[in-house]
Structure formats: C-alpha cells, structure tokens
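Query structure, 569 tokens:
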C-alpha cells in the first residue's frame, strides 16, 4: 500500500508511520510526500515482528548455558575410561566420528538422552544421526565405550530403533560403528523384551536387509545381543587387535562349559574371517577400516531401487593379451585366477571380500569400463578350485547381496565340481551347495558365465551355466564341460576292461587313447557346435566381449514365479 504524508515529514517519521501501518494492515507500505517524493519503503514481516533494527546481541545467558551442557555431554563418560582408550588402540567415539565424516555429521539425535539421570550417562552411550560419507547421505550410530562400556539400555535402544526406522523411510544406507558389551544388565527393565526393545533391532535389521546397504565396523568386543548387529549387516569389517564378537563372553563360556579361552580365540578377527565367515574384511587400524568402507560403498547404490554408481573406465592392470598364457596348457596345473581377473577389470578396481574364508572361491566387486560387477570365480590355486561347503556358502551370500543391490554378476568358471568325501558331507556340502545353486537361479540381475577351463559336474550349475539363464555363456578355447574329468570318467567306465589288459604298455596306451577321446567329446568346440554355449571367444578379446554384453543387457527384465518367497535361504 502507498501512504501520503505532508512535505515536511522526515525519513525517520516516515519509517515510524510505515512500520505502524504495515503491522496494522499486514501489507508492505511505501511512504511518499504529497508531492510524490518516496521517503521510505517498509516491508511487512508478519505478526509478532517488533519494529526497529535487529540488534546483534550475541548468545543469551540461556544459550550459553545450553552450549556448556552440550560440551559436557560431548566429553563422554568418566575421564579414567577415556584415558584407557589409547592403550587399547582406540579413538574416543567423537574423534572417531570426526575421522569418518570430515565435515562432521549433519545432525545428531538424542544427545540429551539420560541427561537428568542420577548416574552420568552422556547420550546414554550411543551417538546417532545423519552424515555425509564419500558424497552419500547416510544414517549412522556409534557406541561410546566410555559410557558403561558402550552397553545398551532404554534411551540408547530408543535412539537405535528410531535411526533404523528412519532409514526405512529415507531408503538411505546405514553405518554401524560398534563398540558395545551388549545389553546393560543392571538396567534391563523396560528395554529387553519390550515390543520396542532391543529385540526390535533384529526385526528392523531384517526389514532393512536388501533394502539399503547395512555396513558394520567393529571396534571392540561385541558380546551377546551386540554381536547380532554385525552378523545381520550386509558387510562387516573387524579391526585387528581390537575387535571381537561372540554369543557370550569368555567368562560366561567358562561358567557354562568349563572351557577357558581368550576373547581373541573365542571370536577375534581370525576366527570370523577364516572359520565362521562372519567378517568380510579385517582392517589393520581405524584409518584402514574407513578406507575399506569408502571403497566398498563405491560399488553399491543407496537402495534397492537404484543402480550402482558408474565411474570413468580405465584399462586393466594386465593386458588382455596375456589371458591365454595365464591359463596353463596342462588342465591339471593350478594358476591364480586373480591374474585373469586383473586382465579383465579396470586397474585397481578388484575389491575382494572374505579372502580367507573358502579361499577356493573368489568373491568381490570390480569394474569393467567403469561399470560395477560382482565376481564369483573359482580359484584353481586353492584346492584345485573344487567347491567346498564354506566356498558354496560364501558364494551364495555374495550372489544374494549383489542381486539385492542391482550389481550384475560375472561368473568365471574353472572347477572340478563340488568336493566329495565324508568330512564335506558332515560340513553340509549338499545344503550349502543347494543354497549357492538357489541364489544363482533366483538372481534377477544380468549374469555372464565364462568357462575359463574346467566346468565339471554340478560346478557348471552353481557357476550359472547354460541351464541357469545367464545372458550369455561364453568360453575360452581352454574350456571343458563334462559330468566329470577324464581320469574319473575312464576309471568309472573302463576300469574293468583296462584291468583285463596284461601288458602295462598296452594298458597305458589304451588309457591315453580313451583320455584323448573323452577330451575331444567334452571340448568347448563340441559344446559350441551343439549350441550348448553361445560363443568361444579369443582370450585377448574377453574384456571387450564382457563390456559389450554387460552394456547390452543392462536393462534385461527377469520375472520370478509369483510366490511369497522360496524356502532355501
């Protein structure tokens, strides 16, 4: 609105008039003289606005008191516990957060939890919030080991659950920085068995599973309930000489079973990276743990609705021209499959998971011309690449994760098949082999199968052979596909006839003839002739072939039967 005043009105008087009218009529006011000269324009700021300049008074006493309270909470638990951290090789939790999030976290929730408790329990021993990590918005939690050894109780449990529930709503990844001795036994009333108690953690973990990546880093001995978060996570990193996880503490184990054992021998990094398979990677220290997770997230989307992030491609570390020379002419001679991988994928992109668990199977992420792929490969350098129970379990879980987060799968097959024998039967080779085959069958992401050399027995099934609907089954000229290898086949079919030949030289010559006949029958040229496989490719072109095929089948649409879910996994 425009208001006219007399010619003698000063600018100060005009401003007072304008502010009064603006607040009365809820509108901007322009004050002009009767002669048309504009003296002042006063905006309307809304109800409750106090006219006049806004003074820069600085924090009030009330705000200063709040800052003091925040600073005290940020100091964590008792000083004596904080002073013990360097001897344990640990960072104080808020220093750890500064390491992970260079610009600090975006916000914190529940900082004042248990603020009025009789005992000093800053943030109730748990920090939760949102942060930016490697350019990605994530939810995070971090235990404060200086507060009751990072144990969980009512308010901390509430914070943890809220973080998980918000992650379900936002569909953003979750990072768990675990250093917890488990539930706080002396305060268990109100959080242990409640509908919204600590048991809800694992319900929420299950709901988040396959929806958003859940990544857990262990910084200490996580016992009992606290140990379930790392095993529910999609990827778990333990820190050497620092972390452990177990269903019960050594003291409890001794009480129940009489066994005396150290925490490291019970559930340290070697146990879970080599024997149980619960740890995907072992970091040397806190900085290394962050580096590993930074690499890992580069292969994963924010959630199951999105595609993995692509980067600019780069040439492989080893020339693809070397591929044929990597695979020995002798079909029974071992070699390192990682040499073949490094001739196919972008230099520096091979990121292996669970390297010490089931080492006869390689699982990990890589890029082919910038495109993330999950690689499942037999390792002839270990146990001739035969599939043992641990290897089958490892592969099944990795395939399932890749499928959940839309990472295409590359199978590199060179295996004599599943291992036989009484011990592997006791170790559930059939059960775990079944799970690998099920995961391969049910994966809906694009799949490419490469028969590098041996593809014997059910090994070709587990490695996504022709019957498992890969987008392509291609082979190198060294490839062989058969029910079993030549030696086993000759023994199974011709043992009696060969035994009837008395002359050792004649028997040896006949064995060699049978071996050559069998190899001719199982050679990939025969399989290509019968269109069992799609193509035999010159080894030096393998990377180019895979690049083209993954790009071509990027948007392939696969339907599963209409059912609630399978019963295998």
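Result returned for the query:
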């Amino acid at each position: 609105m425009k208001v006219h005043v007399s010619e003698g009105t000063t600018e100060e008087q005009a401003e007072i008039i304008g502010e009064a009218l603006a607040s009365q009529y809820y509108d901007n006011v322009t004050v002009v003289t009767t002669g048309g000269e504009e003296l002042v324009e006063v905006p309307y700021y809304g109800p409750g606005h106090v006219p006049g300049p806004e003074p820069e008074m600085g924090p009030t006493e009330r705000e200063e008191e709040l800052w003091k309270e925040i600073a005290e909470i940020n100091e964590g638990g008792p000083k004596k516990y904080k002073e013990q951290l360097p001897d344990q090789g640990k960072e104080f939790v808020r220093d750890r957060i500064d390491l992970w999030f260079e610009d600090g976290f975006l916000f914190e929730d529940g900082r004042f939890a248990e603020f009025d408790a009789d005992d000093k329990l800053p943030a109730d021993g748990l920090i939760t919030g949102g942060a930016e990590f490697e350019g990605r918005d994530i939810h995070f939690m971090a235990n404060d080991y200086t507060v009751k050894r990072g144990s969980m109780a009512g308010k901390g449990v509430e914070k943890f659950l809220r973080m998980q529930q918000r992650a379900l709503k936002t569909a953003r990844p979750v990072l768990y920085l675990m250093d917890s001795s488990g539930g706080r036994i002396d305060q268990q009333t109100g959080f242990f068995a409640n509908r919204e108690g600590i048991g809800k953690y694992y319900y929420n973990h299950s709901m988040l599973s396959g929806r958003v990546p859940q990544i857990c880093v262990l910084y200490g001995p996580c016992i009992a309930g606290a140990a379930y978060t790392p095993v529910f996570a999609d990827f778990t990193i333990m820190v050497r000489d620092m972390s452990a996880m177990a269903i019960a503490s050594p003291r409890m184990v001794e009480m129940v079973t009489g066994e005396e054992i150290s925490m490291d021998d019970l559930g340290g990094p070697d146990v879970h990276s080599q024997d149980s398979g619960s740890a995907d990677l072992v970091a040397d220290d806190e900085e290394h743990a962050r580096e590993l997770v930074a690499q890992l997230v580069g292969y994963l989307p924010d959630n199951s609705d999105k595609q993995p992030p692509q980067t600019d491609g780069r040439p492989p570390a080893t020339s693809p021209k070397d591929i044929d020379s990597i695979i020995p002419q002798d079909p029974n001679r071992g070699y390192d499959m990682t040499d073949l991988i490094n001739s196919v994928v972008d230099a520096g992109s091979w990121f292996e998971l669970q390297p010490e668990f089931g080492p006869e199977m390689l699982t990990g992420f890589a890029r082919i011309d910038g495109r993330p792929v999950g690689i499942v490969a037999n390792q002839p350098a270990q146990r001739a690449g035969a599939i043992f129970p641990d290897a089958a379990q490892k592969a099944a879980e990795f395939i399932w994760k890749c499928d959940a987060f839309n990472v295409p799968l590359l199978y590199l097959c060179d295996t004599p098949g599943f291992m036989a024998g009484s011990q592997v039967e006791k170790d559930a080779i059939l059960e775990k082999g079944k799970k690998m085959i099920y995961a391969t069958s049910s994966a809906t992401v694009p799949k490419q199968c490469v028969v590098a050399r041996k593809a014997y027995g059910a090994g070709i099934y587990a490695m996504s052979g022709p019957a498992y609907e890969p987008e392509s089954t291609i082979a190198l000229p060294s490839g062989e596909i058969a029910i079993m290898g030549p030696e086993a086949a000759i023994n199974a079919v011709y043992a009696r006839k060969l035994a009837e030949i008395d002359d050792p030289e004649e028997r040896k010559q006949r064995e060699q003839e049978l071996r050559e006949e069998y190899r001719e029958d199982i050679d990939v040229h025969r399989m290509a002739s019968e269109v069992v496989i799609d193509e035999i490719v010159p080894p030096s072109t393998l990377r180019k072939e895979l690049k083209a095929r993954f790009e071509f089948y990027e948007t392939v649409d696969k339907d599963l039967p209409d059912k609630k879910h399978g019963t295998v996994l």
